[in-house]
Structure formats: structure tokens, C-alpha cells
Amino acid sequence: MNKELIKKTISSFRQELIDRNYSKCIIWQYGKICRNFMNWATSDDIRYFSEDTARDYCLFVCGTWEYGFKLPFHERITLRCMRMLLSSFKGEEFESRTPLVARPFQTSICNHVEGYLLWCKEELLLSTVSIKRRKNMLSRYDNFLFDKKIDLSDVTAYINDDFFYTCKLSYRREFKHFLREYFTYIYESKYIDKDLSSTVVKDSFTPRPEKLPSTYSTDEIRHAINAIDRSTPKGKRDYIVFLLAAEYGLRASDIVQLRMTDIDWERNEIKIIQCKTKKPLTLPLIASVGNAIIDYMRNGHPSEGGNLIIVQHGNTRKGKIVHSCALHAIVSNAIRAGNGQTAATHKHGPHSLRHSLASNMLKMGVSLNVISGSLGHSITQSTQTYLKIDFLQLGKCSLPIPLLKSELFKMNKEGTI
């Protein structure tokens, strides 16, 4: 790796934060950490930046290179900043999260955890994210058993309840499902003689509080679109991102993967394989979207991006794929610029535009089957959640309230029914 002065590395990192629209508060905070890092390096007569230098500084300040829940806030933010600085130096994407401290499997779970994860991938066809969540849960469970000096064969329902008590309430139901699935796998694979899935006691059903999706009207969406500055290359890109989310309801993961080869210009169609469901989705190519893509590819798209449409424009990562998390800032900035007051009380990420598309289609009387197909849902039940915000149709289902002086009111008051 080429040598680079620490001062130059920090300067490039700061510029990248500015290019990515990080807040002034974060830039100031990271700048302070970088200055402390530079003072430390100067005192040790270190002039050039390297991964070892970044690690040594984190070990000096935080005592670790990986995230830990017990770290004080200033150490967590230092760790985050230094890992981002290293990613900028390498020309890599910023980590969405600082990885947790990796603890190896220390009980008999280590003998079949890899087989279980492989089974999840090949038999259950789970995504990488789902497999990682299962591995993290098993790691926590393994550490719990190791700390308690309990062997897997001695697990009981009481022991498992003690483990779930250490987990956040929002994770318990999911963790119970994972652990029950794991116990079933090792029993059917003849790793153990007893089926331990019965030791994972099901929770009594407690309905979660209903959450209504945040939506925007067609006028509010139009105001947000008009607020985007299309005179710059980044503005042209952001305009496409917003249109894809608002007109098609595409997920952020599908937007960042869109390529020119996915567009059939002769048939005016967009054909993609959805990242979430792995199922094909065909959409009509709307004129406004097609024209925006042509304008961007001709007058703003970095040549380094190839046929990938949505790419970065920063100096160090020009032409690289945009992380799906970054789309939140693009959509959020447009919504805030066009609808300041509404954005303050609503969610304003790309998924809110997906909700808005479904809501506005319901208002126009479009059937659930058509909406489900447009959004790429695997089952119609996923689309039914939007019925909760179709207030026009819900109003037709309301029952008349009897007058207070009616016979029904008198009967209830006297307790005869």
C-alpha cells in the first residue's frame, strides 16, 4: 500500500465527509478525534498513516479495535471515527456499523455451528443477513452457557429462560425462533439424542402496538422532487433515486443495484431480480424516469461507474456503488427541502415513498393484487397492512352509534343485556 502522510489522509477523509453530506456536528466531532490522533502520532514520531497505526491508536485510547457495549461513549465514537478513516484511506465503503468484539464458540456448539449455518444457506435458502443474525444469536447463547459452566446436554427450560431474560424484549421472540430451529437441526442430524426444542418455551401472544406507515400526498412528493437541484451531477443522480422510490416504490437495495442492462429500451421495461425476495420484477419504463436516466448518464455519470446507474461522486470513491443506507440521506434531504413541517413529524426515508405509493394507489381505488404486484410482494398479505391507512374505505365500514336516548342505551344502562 502506498505511503501517505497522516495530515493528507485526514484532509481527504474530512472532504469525503463533506461530500457525503455529514452534519457539521459530526464533521467537527470527527475532526477533533483526528487532531488528537495526529498529536499522538507526532509524539511517537509517526508521519505516515497505516492500518497498524490506526489500530495502535485505538488500542491506546480504547483498549480494543472492535465495538463493545461497555465502552464509554467517547471511546465508541473514537473507534468509529478511526475505522472510517481507515476505510477512506483504503478507498473502501464505510462500515454501516462497527463490528462487535468477536468471541469464539467455546462450548460443544462449536462442533456443529458451521453445519447449521450451511444448512440455513442451502436448505432454507436464507440470505446472508439472516444467517449472520443466527450466528450472532448462537454466539451469545454459547457465551452464556460457557460463563455459567453449562454443557449443551444439560440445557433445561429454566436455563433458556435465564438466557432470554438477558436479551432485549424486542429480540426475544426472534431469538427463541432461532434457538428452536437450531435445536431441531442438531437433533435431526443425530448430533444429540434428545430434542431440546421443547426447552424453548413459547411466549404467550401479546399483540404489538400498531404502527401506521408514514405516507406523503402526491402534492408533497411533487414539492420534494422540485426541491432537488438537477443542475449538478449529484443532483441528477438524486433525482433518479427519488423517482425510482416514488414512482415504483423500489426498495433501497434494488435502487443501488440498478444497471443499464436492466432496462429494455425497445420495450420500455425495467427488469430486475429483487434483492430481498430473489424474485423477478418487471416494471414499465415511465418517460420521466427514462429521460432522467439518459440525462444523467450523458451529462453527469462518472465514467468509472460503468453500467451501474447510481454511483458515488466523492473524490476517493468516484464511480463506486452507493450503499443502500446512503439513500436515506438523499430522499430525506429532498423531503425536508420541499416539506419542512411535514417531514418533522413523519419518517422520511426511501421506504416512506414506498408506503406513499401504496397509499395513493389505494385512494385511487386500485386493487390489492395490482398494488402487491407493483411493489414486488411475494404474498398479498404483505400488502394488506396498507388497508390500515385507507381512511376513505375504512370510513365506509363504520357502524352508526345509537342515540343516548334510544332503547339500546336504556337497556345497557339498566344492565339487562
From TrEMBL:
InterPro entries assigned: DNA_brk_join_enz, Integrase-like_cat_sf, Integrase_catalytic, Tyrosine_recombinase_XerCD
Pfam families named among the record's database cross-references: Phage_integrase
Keywords (A to Z) from UniProt: DNA recombination
GO terms, molecular function: DNA binding
BP-aspect Gene Ontology terms: DNA integration; DNA recombination
Domain called Tyr recombinase: residue spans: 211-399
Coiled coil: none
Gene3D superfamilies, alphabetized: Intergrase catalytic core (1.10.443.10)
Protein known as: Tyr recombinase domain-containing protein
Native organism: Dysgonomonas mossii DSM 22836
